[in-house]
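User: ok so my PI wants both of these folded by tonight, can you help

Assistant: No problem, let's get them done. Here's the first:
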Amino acid sequence: MIITRKWLAQFLDLENISNDQISLALNSLGFEVEQTYDLDALNSELLLGLVVESKPIANTHLKINKVKLADQILEIVCGAENIGVDQFVIVAPINSTISNGLTLTAKTIRGYQSQGMVCALNEIGIFSSSLTESELKNIYQVSDNYLNLNTLTGQSVKPMINLDDFIWEVDLTLNRSDCLASFQLLKELANYFNLSITNLNSEFNHFTNNDLKLTVEIDPKLEQFIRTVAYSEYQLKKSVKLNSKDDLWLKLNHTKTTGDIINDLALKTAIQTGQNLIVIDQNKLKDFNLEIKQVRWNDLEVLAVVSNDQIINVIGLEVEEHFRADNNSQNIVVLMLNLDPTIMRKQQKLLNTSTIMLQRYTKPINPNLFELANKTFANELDYYNLVNKASQVKILKKTFEQNNKFVVDLDRINTLLGTKFSVSEIQALFKTLDFKITANDQQLTFEVDENRIDLYGINDICEEIARLYGYDQIKEQPIDFKTNKVDNKFDLKLEDKLTNYLIGLGFNNTKTYSLTDHQSAVNWNLFKIQNLITLEKPLSKLRTTYRTNLSKSLIDTAIYNAANNNKQLKLFEIADIYGFKELKQRHLAFLTTSDIFQDKLSDNKISANFYYNKAILEAIFRLYNLDLNKLEYQINQQQIDQIHAFVNATIKYDQHLLGFIYRLNPDFEAQHKLEQTIVVEINLDNLNKFANKTIQIATLSKYQSSKRDVSIELVNDIKYSDFIKKIIKNVKYLTNVQVIDQYVDQKLASENKKSLTIQFTFNSFDHQLTEQEINDQQKILQKNILDLEITIR
């Protein structure tokens, strides 16, 4: 971004402020000054001259010219084809030194003594990249509609056209793309030096109602990318030539002028306000029905403004010549757009160029700048007495509403910054920055400048206060670290054993990203995490919120691998889940999909299934020394769509939630090319809480154990964990109980039953059990079963 001293001086009193002070101010405010240019120092002496005679030199491309400098006439040989009589030109006299280091001396050329040089802009330090091909090879003609140049010949031309200006080239960070409007930098400097801004859009205020019936139809596919559509109309007076001051100011801003004053002033408006103007000659339109859509242009698919299938403007470039306003235009339409920067960055890549308009379209800028831009453009036209009639802005689309109000306690600001600001001191920091700050006791309400769309929350407000106060003014203090009590390492040892156990079973240890999109975090919030953490400034919409589970991350990993034809997977991850209010949970998730075992020689294989994962899960519970009789598996009928409606269970221990086991919905599996996929996730913090960490060596009986199998018919609605406690009541000598078989036939299924075979193991530590003792206990067992009205097969 370019800022010049002469431009600033139109609005600020800089009499007592040096260029070095402005450089210091810009750097202090966070705008890094990359380079400075002192135009005045580039050329020792440049004078205004008037060409009074110009004759060609025979057999050459040269001309001998008589140039008036006050009362003096100089003869100067010049090779520029555009030099002619009655032109005001820039003359470098004898003994002057110009920007390329050349010191002028009297020379005889083709028999004529040349007494100086008539200059082109690139010869006196103006960037060649800002000049047209014609300007690169021709001399520059000075123009000004308010100065009587006839009376000024022979005087220094530098102050007349601002060749004595001083330039700052400022590097803008992405969050301050609002300063692609030079008015924003103006406000920053005014605030820094405590100066009042004058003459800012204060001249023209004769706007009429906008009666033009213009429509702009947006392709539905592009609707989400078009934020603002607005327009105004003007009736113009007879055109004049652009003053050299404005012409050179545009060139110093790395902009090639067009030769049409209307378009040049539109460019000046864009640089000052940040809002691009698409200026269309109203009389060249067949009708007032425009479209914004993708079209073919030079073998490229580009975004354009179209009328009757004719391209008016490839957005980001100049208006097409057939529709462009020029010096003969009497009625113009000024179209103002704001588009999503992502689609415009694609456009810029396609066009492979950088223009004033593309620079502003591709950056996040306030999309509601149309009023400021229209007023500024009207003022620029009015300065040249070009306005016959100017209309107000008519808004066709306005979708962006910025949250620009933030409430923060003074104590919070001072705590974050390590300062002792008062309310009045903070208010004084924002004097000319279009921030409105009100105070209610020690609470401040900030209504921020609508151009500052980079401010999202209280932390940004505090950072803004620090920037304006000066980072170097804030006293450095060491960070106060609060250490947490180190937990017993026993939990970590168990976790290491758990990790080794899963790796030993052939699982791959996976590490996935902790951030996900907000919708996924909410939808997959199986553990009902409260107060989700959402980033204020996410780098991507896919990474906005801390995840609420590990399962979704493992499933995404499986989907990615399946898409790359790697479908036989056994994955696990151990990681933390976070929420506000210092919430931190340690979770384990593991997943199996496709074949968990395959022997290609024998063509034997085992597919992933619910009971395989359940067996692993219960092995983990035994590692943590849990009483498996206290476990409950409850089917959840209200699962999310991605989970199988019936092959799922909520895992509880003594009525406390441990986790979940489930199969993915077959439709979801098919959609993502997954085979049967079983997922388990448990809360390791809860598991550690219920783990029996006091490990005692069990006494081994030296006597032979005996086993009895009992088959029963159990209604599906009865929980195994509930009835097993009741049937072993008062039964002695039991050392183990386990289900060894499950059977369902058509008859049982019709009765909503299943057949379970349960094995009971009997033993004693002090004597060998007799058959009679075992049979007596089995009778108690059978009586308990019958009391529960359960059928023994």
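One down. Here's the second:
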Amino acid sequence: MVLFGIGAKKRVKSRKPCQPTSTNSFLLEPILTPSAGIESGDSLLDLDIIRSNESLLIDLPDVDIEEAPSNQDNFLGTEIDIASDSAPFELSPLPTSTSLEFDTGVFTVGNSGDVTIDFLFDGGGYQGEVAIFSLDGLERANLSTEEFIKIAAERALSNSDWGHIVISDATDAAKFTSEFAWEGDFNSGEYQKARSFSMRAGDRVGFMLVPNGRVEDVLHSPMDGAIRPLFSMASNELNPGQLSYVEQIVDVTGDGNTFAFEDLRVDTGSDRDYNDIVFQVRGAKGEAVDLDQVIDPHRDWRTTDMGQALIAYTEPYITPDPDHDYHEHYHEPTDNLQLEPLTIPIVNEPDGYDFSAADQPLIGVIDTGINGNNPYLNYNQIINGFDWVGGDSDSQLQPLEGNEHGTHIVGTISSINDDATIWVGRAIGSGQWADSLIEFVDTAKASGQANAVANLSFELAQINWDETLSPRYELTEAEWRALDYAHRNNIIIVAAAGNDGSAISALGQASQLFDNIITVGSATQVDSFQSIANRFDRADYSNYGASLSLVTDGGTPDNPMLAPVENGIGAMSGTSVATAKVTGAVSQVWAANPQLSYQQVIEILKATAVDLAVPNWDAETGAGLLNIAAAVHLAKATTPVPVLPKSASLPDFWAESDTVIEKAANVTEVAFSGTVISTVNANVRSGPSTSFAVVGQRLPGTTVSFDAWTVGELIDYSNEGLGRSDRWYRIAGTDQWISAAIIAGTPPESSSDPLPESIVVNGFTISNPFLPVWRQYQPTLLNPISNAIFHAPSGATYQLFQGGSIVTSQFGTFPLYGGIRQTYLREGGLNGWMGAPKSAEYSWEGKIRQDFANGYIVWNGRSATAYRNGSNNPNPGQPTPIDPGKFYNPLSGSWYTVVIGGGYRDPARPNHVGIDLATGKNEPPVKAAKGGRIVRAGWDTTGYGNLIVVEHDGGIRTYYAHLSHIAVNVGDTVSAGQYIGDVGTTGNSTGNHLHFEVRVSPFRFQTDNRNPADYVQF
């Protein structure tokens, strides 16, 4: 679905001669989110193997490349076995004499060795490829141009730290898209996001553009027309054209971060607009001629709104000059406070906007009310809502009434947008924030303003039996209906992630079901002298998880944010402040283009956010750090597209109101003390596992008093001469924990074990033995999407969660998640050869390992590989022989997630009688779950879209709905695992997913449906 001009599918480009045939051999597919990174496809080469063959540079015999078969697709010797039917080729040897020299256009790889490429703009009619390749041994080498080109191409095709293809224009779309007065819009395909490629730290590398073809074509025709590559390195021999060679690639910003290729030689017809291929380079530093020196001033795309958005997007990745006072651009000083209107600092916040009052959205703030006499607030632009705490119609605080949290929030929003009207309701502490939200929606509908956004800078808590408060992970029916009312009226809701340094509570998690909710976390500075992207990271106190949308600076207790409170200025920090900043940003983006849908506004904020720590979305920082300047510019350049709200059904029943999810499982209260025995400072965490935030440290030899212990994550320091324990000790008088593995001293043993427990979360029961494991891994596993399911063939029982599963068997109870779980499921799961898990993940030889009954899986930081017990060789990947009496996963071997609320008779959708498996942008093959006969294959008019029904022995049918393609016909006989179609989003569907049902004879809807999880492991 196209929401705005980023990575959009537009139309096929007008093609120049030499149309290359698309090949998948060299395209990267960064899809999975694994144990601790991005899992790449199984066909990727092992980088350790490649590094062990570095001697190939000088020791291999000569190879006649022209005689190599045309289907070759790897550069290593035949002793390396990869998933390909093609014959390998070797790197060409290098001569030792000198000739070529490069002064500019050379890049140096940073210390991490990872180079990230973000394809930003496609302004050329050609469809080519961009590659990065090592210059090791090539600089000053006595090579002909043709020899140099061939070696560069070989390295690019190796998909190793010698080189990679980083952009394939025929299939990849750029992040930004636009048309200009002098040319149309050439962008097409799917935007692949920022992609990382492994090179060698400190290596000097170059970029190569094949203007209208593939790198593979260059091996056979290196000097032909539009196939002949152009290079980033300055050289008359490589980029012919006298003095113009220095202008083939340019530095867009002048900071060595963003570059542009002209896909025509600049001496033979280039239009000199330098936007044919614009890309950002992270993790490597290079130099090229400044764009200002060579661009045709009549075609300077940087002056357009799209150009300004692109420039603003790249700026936070630029490392500041140490001699430049970069601080002043992004942070207001906290000393020498002046009593004048405040400016709250935001990354890349531009100078003031002046959008018309008619275009401003109405802003709603549901909080603690506001002070009625603050000189920094403009009360002419404030509307007082109902006071649900005091029971009157005025949300302004009386003297000595309430607190100033709401005043600070309103002041923060006003400092970002002082043109918008702000409605204020007082509800925190009343238990009636849902009523206040409904009141605001009604006010927005009657206001005449085109749009509205509600700020909810609070976290839902619950009063426990002992009168303590704990985060609440369920919404009441009234709260759900209020959120649904705002959703149906196109109101954007900006919600705080919370300040517990752990899982996001119910309000923030609702963003996974309602597409109008933005969940905001807080970031903090970790290094003042780095680029913005490297300067910030998640604040320790900020909650995180799958529902996190983005982050911005929320301050810290030591460096808080200033805003109006009482009769002057006050300081505050937390996700509440961050949420207010994002609310202000939403209002400016919408004011810049009020015709945008709320989905477009949210996607613009996410698409322009600054990646922190890792490229693209992650659970710690969401889409990244708010970048309001880029977002506003992109809003101006975006064509409004009406989008229907995504449906979100409300549950018919709710968990009991006294259900509470504790942080620690089965806590045993007992007083004792112990001594830190580690040789370095011992981390103190906010919960009993390493997934919780570090909140302090204790020095070696320190004696610490404890008041409780619990079972948590297993910590093994036995190799370091310390302990191995799954016990964690709570520091007396706090909710802070230290692993028993680094403490000398044990608690007195209690007379009995803690009593077993069971709780209900989102309508599903979690009980022993799943409960303690779930509590330990809750930040990773998130909330349940099924009850416990017995797997008769193996005797194991498992339970599904949003982020993985837990399996209990004769070997114990262990979690499965990330890349290791995906590989386990590809090997057949409980139906496959590996059997049930025998351990959780643990460190092993510098990698992560998890053991199973008949083998183990190793995660190397990029991919997971299954091994059989007793073998050091990876499992060859041969499928387990099909048992005709069993059911198999219809998406076996493909990445998918179980849709939240998409389980069988999920509490949120009790009439949903199948299971929904979402595949993102992908449309993977669908396989028959069991052998049988096709009894239906075609379009269904009741909402299933393209539907296949397979009838099996024993009076059972399986249903496969919403397919994009059907590959079988009625009457066909299929076997288990046979390809029958592709995942799609036809019929009543809002995204690519497989709706899978099981029915028994006589196959009536609802009445004869059965839970698919009783037949298939997902």
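The chain has five domains: 98-297, 359-637, 668-744, 758-868, 897-1014. The two ends are 27 Å apart (CA to CA). Good luck tonight!
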